[in-house]
Amino acid sequence: MTEVKSPEVPAPPAAVPDELTEEPGRWGRIRPFLPLAALAVAVILPYSTLHLPGIFEGALNSPGTLQLLAVCLVFGGLAAGYDLLFGRTGMLSFGHALYFAAGVYGTDILITRAGLPLWQAAPLAIVGGTILAGLLGAVALRTIGIAFAMVTLAFAQVGAILVARDFGGLTGGEEGLPLDVAGLPDGLVGVANTVNLYWLALAYLVVVVFVVHRVSGSPTGRVLAGLRDDERRIGVLGLDPYRFKLVAFTLAGGLASAGGVVYCLIVGGASPHITSSELTLSLLVMVVLGGPGTRWGPVLGGILYMYLDHRLVSFGTSDAVNALPAFLSRPLSQPLFVLGTVFILAVYFFPGGLASLAPRLALLRDSLRPGSRRQG
Amino acid sequence: MDAIILLTLTGLGLAALYFLVASGLSLVFGLADVLNFAHGLFLGVGAYATWWAAGNLPGAGPDGLGFVVAVAFGVAAGTLMAVLVELVLIRPLYSRTIEQVLVTVGLSLAGVALLQATWGADARPFPRPAWTREVTSIFGAQVPNGGLLLIVAATLVLGAILAFLRWTRYGLIIRAGVENREMVTALGIDVRKAFTLVFAIGGAAAALAGALGSVYFGTVSPQQGGSLLIFAFIVVVIGGMGSVVGSAYAAVAVGLLQQFVNYYGTSGLGDICVVALLAVVLLLRPQGIAGKAVTA
């Protein structure tokens, strides 16, 4: 068998010719290092005793502030994982809370009820949540579009009912299940060790961002983007949309369960409200506010949303708001009212979310600066 | 035997509640492709408006004719709310399905929070006519009158919607629009007026469900709509999106299944059976019982 080989054609140079590349400004040169700088700041932040009145209640390294930051970081990671479904693959799942709750309740039950140590319980919970996502995804993905959203919503509702009705006395029902600290390593127990939980949450966020970044940059990620834009075309190209979507769904479910494990450790237990569909809806809000399909948008959206959700409560009861007339001060005391309204406005006026603000502002700045880009 | 009759009738009462919420959802989804998460808000608005009217509106009260006036006020408030939502929020995003879903999600979050801010998060006792607290004896079963009221109301609404779809010009446009919206537009009919109308019908039915459901439960709370909404979604998907009759069948199936399993099995098992039914229907017949066609 002879094989006809075409002569090696040298590939065209990948580099853009010098005259076409824009001279990177000082800002452009710094930009790629910004995430690393942010990470470095986040890592050393617990050593700071800085007081930021109005932004945080205590000093930066006080346990209360660190716990709030840790919750924010976990939700930043969760939003990034959810974006793998919504922003990058175009799947509108209303059941993401289920896999997060699987991680939270899985860890809690294995440690508190079964008496396992953390190093066994955490991997088991993550593997269990991933398998659950794979199985339910295999059923739910037989439908598409809105029906898919409904089926995932219904599955998550079953999870919420199972937890709330307390079948078998495992979940503690409406009261939730406090975590038994006997199964935990000493470094994660007690108020003084909140800083370790903070670093754990930061590590989770870094892992999720890394995984999502690697997946979306891989050939699989390009297929997922293709599914988002035109599913039929992917099918015509001979690829199986079902299989790729199942991979994305399972991966996102696994990431959510891992987040659940970390969250369970941070708040020291599980409560039934994390199984509700509102949690999934708030993930959706985070992603859309941050900017779906972008690298940092969902992370920022998640962190900001959780921060506002916590801080708006004290803002709503502050003197400045109480001084307003009742028809203003009462709605403002509800964080969800403020966030929901901001969300609606964002859908209309900032479809790209926070991530699109920088290019928009740059555009505005350029048009205001006379003579900067007039040669074209 | 008593237990079976009682369970059947209370199951039908639940089914009536689901149907009132699901019929509007189904029409809105069938015609305008809007998955309306704010539908639970219309229910809440209807319930709170009725509650407010019974205490404050002159001529309205918790009893007799005054109660009818109060419910009418609640339904009017729900309808107005639905029409405003359609005109102000949904219409600018016409044919952008995901954004419409997002807006209704935001609206449901903000709206429920607003209800909570105004009237508090706790359930409030609902003013209801004395006779709705009593029971009627039917073949030896003591059936609560509130449930019977729901069944009667839902049957009337079903009849009214079907008659409207069957015998009026706008009903014809809606039926045609559910079948093929582009064709209706191509014939020179402004289908957006039909959208507003469908939202109004859905809002009115949901507000009625809110008012009568609160009579049935005896209390009113901001979260009431949200918990009903998930089962209403399930009813819509099982019944087939866009079909009012399908919603009615599915509501009866879901209501009865839930009541009987919850009674004879463990509490909560009925809810899970409903989801199992949804999974089975979707796997065997993804378009639902009645498919995407309004049959009148």
From TrEMBL, chain A:
Statement: the UniProt record of this protein carries the keyword Ion transport: no
Superkingdom per UniProt: Bacteria
UniProt keyword terms in alphabetical order: Cell membrane, Membrane, Transmembrane, Transmembrane helix
Topological relation to the membrane, as annotated: Multi-pass membrane protein
Annotated region (Disordered), positions in chain: 1-21
Stretches that traverse the bilayer: 33-52, 64-85, 97-116, 122-141, 148-168, 188-212, 246-271, 283-308, 336-358
Subcellular location as annotated: Cell membrane
Pfam (any one): BPD_transp_2
Protein name: Branched-chain amino acid ABC transporter permease
From TrEMBL, chain B:
Any one Pfam family match given in the protein's UniProt record, by short name: BPD_transp_2
Coiled-coil region: none
Entry's transmembrane regions: 6-27, 34-53, 65-89, 101-119, 146-165, 194-217, 229-256, 263-284
This protein's UniProt keywords: Amino-acid transport, Cell membrane, Membrane, Transmembrane, Transmembrane helix, Transport
Topology versus the membrane: Multi-pass membrane protein
Keyword Magnesium: no
Subcellular location: Cell membrane
UniProt-listed InterPro entries: ABC_transp_permease (IPR001851), BCAA_transport_permease (IPR052157)
Protein family (similarity comment): Belongs to the binding-protein-dependent transport system permease family. LivHM subfamily.
Protein name: Branched-chain amino acid ABC transporter permease
Organism: Micromonospora andamanensis
Gene from which the chain derives: livH_1
